[in-house]
Write a structure and sequence with these properties.
The structure holds 2 protein chains of 2 kinds. Chain A is 0% helix and 57% strand. By secondary structure, chain A is an all-beta fold. In chain A, strands 2, 4, 5, 9, 10 and 11 form a 6-stranded mixed beta sheet that branches. By secondary structure, chain B is mostly beta strands. Chain B has no helices and 11 strands. Chain B is globular and about 40 Å long. At the A-B interface, β5, β9 and β10 of A face β4, β5 and β9 of B.
Chain lengths: 111, 111
């Protein structure tokens, strides 16, 4: 069983809508969480990093962390076709910066 | 360009052959990582290294060995390649503020 779980999708949303991506984790000791975007054939690129309960906003992106329920989410407002990619959730655990990833959710934004 | 450099970019091996994937970073990061990515599987951690001279197993270490030669370099060795090791391999390093940087990837096929 993966430590970080994501729905593989694809998640399809119309252009301009809000895309909601979710991730659950099993280790209550996990300290921090990341959302990465990965275009086909490319390396992952960091979008958001969150370690406190609540919301963190950066432009059109909002990350939400709920440690009691052990889930992390990413909201993308005003979705654009260029947002079509796979979104990877990752957790950082332990004192040695161990970072493990979920399986990713494929997002398709329909023009 | 500064960052994480992986070599080679592409490789084809026959079953049973050995090879070493090279990774170097010029950002003075302490921690480095090797991941593999298969379709629908996200990124799976093979090994990571918190500092020069230390390495730890990740989720899928079997069939691989690693060497943290110095602070800059972290190599991944396949002693006897198997078709199940056909994958895209990513090396990464991480800053003290937990921002992870990835190399461009190595696409490995084992026939």
């Amino acid at each position: 069983q993966k430590e970080v779980e994501q729905n593989s999708g694809p998640l399809s949303v119309p252009e301009g809508a809000i895309a909601s991506l979710n991730c659950t984790y099993s280790d209550r000791g996990s300290q921090s969480f990341f959302w990465y975007r990965q275009y086909s054939g490319k390396s992952p690129e960091l979008i958001m990093f969150i370690y406190s309960n609540g919301d963190k906003e950066d432009g059109r992106f909002t990350a939400q962390l709920n440690k009691a329920s052990q889930y992390v989410s990413l909201l993308i407002r005003d979705s654009q076709p260029s947002d079509s990619a796979t979104y990877l959730c990752a957790e950082l655990t332990g004192g040695y910066q161990k970072v493990t990833f979920g399986t990713g959710t494929k997002l398709q934004v329909i023009p | 360009n500064a960052g994480v450099t992986q070599t080679p970019k592409f490789q084809v091996l026959k079953t049973g052959q050995s090879m070493t994937l090279q990774c170097a970073q010029d950002m003075n990061h302490n921690s480095m990582y090797w991941y593999r990515q298969d379709p629908g599987m996200g990124l799976r951690l093979i090994y990571y290294s918190a500092s020069e001279g230390t390495t730890d197993k990740g989720e899928v270490p079997n069939g691989y060995n690693v060497s943290r030669l110095n602070k800059r370099e972290f190599s991944l060795r396949l002693e006897s390649a198997a078709p199940s090791q056909t994958s895209v391999y990513f090396c990464a390093s991480i800053t003290n503020t937990n921002i992870q940087y990835f190399g461009a990837g190595t696409r490995l096929s084992v026939l």
